[in-house]
Amino acid sequence: MKLQRIFAEYLGTALLLTSVIGSGIMAENLTDDVGLQLTINAISIVSMLALIITLFSPISGAHFNPVVTLGELFKERIDAKSAVGYIFAQFAGGFTGTVFANLMFSKPAIFQSHHERTGTNLFISEIFATAGLIAIVHLLTDQKRTNLAPIIIPAWITTAFYATSSFVFANPAVTFARVWSDSFAGITLHSAWIYAIAQLIGLPVGLVVARLLFVKK
């Protein structure tokens, strides 16, 4: 049922952002050590990713990410109408999750972030992180090993969390949702646009990498 798939994308993205924002606020409350804050945030995010991918993959394919949906549209694994519904649900879910996390920690429902994230290094980092994610998604599909997605995708996010300067946003819906929380995981609206452009560049790069590595049987 199409509505069920769209709701799964909405709910999954909302849960993801609740984890992203909520664990970031909790980390700030627990310690002033930035490294420890990052670790707390990372553990929460990748654990939630594993959970929602496992639960929602049979329902919607567990995209939770507009660039993943656009990649599936390019490969004709999803039709344009469904893709629009998915992307709308992802942005709406991300916003909902952010608001809910803010309220859980007695913050204003919406308070715009002042956390500036700019620089060529961060732009390159987001291209790399997004390209890697897209390549992994399509390699798993091409190799008919999507059952490993709940392990492999969180593994990539964990690696990129510590190996990239941008802290691996790699998702426009997540990026713009994080604008509305002036907390550890937040980002300014200006920076969000820059990140989103990098992510859209990473999409075709990831598709090309997956294509080059594809082995016909």
Automatic annotation (TrEMBL):
Q: Which UniProt keywords apply?
A: Membrane, Repeat, Transmembrane, Transmembrane helix, Transport
Q: Which GO terms describe its cellular component?
A: cytoplasm; endomembrane system; membrane
Gene Ontology biological process terms in this record: one-carbon compound transport
A Pfam family recorded for this sequence: MIP
Q: What start and end residues bound the annotated signal peptide?
A: none
Instruction: Tell me what topology the record assigns in the membrane.
Output: Multi-pass membrane protein
Q: What main location does UniProt list?
A: membrane
Is Transmembrane tagged as a keyword?
yes
Which GO molecular function annotation, any one, does this entry have? water channel activity
Transmembrane region(s): 7-26, 38-62, 83-103, 123-141, 148-172, 192-214
Write out the annotated subcellular location: Endomembrane system
InterPro entries noted in UniProt: Aquaporin-like, Aquaporin_transptr, MIP
Q: What is this protein called?
A: Unannotated protein
> Can you name the source organism?
freshwater metagenome
The uppermost taxa in this organism's lineage are:
unclassified sequences, metagenomes, ecological metagenomes
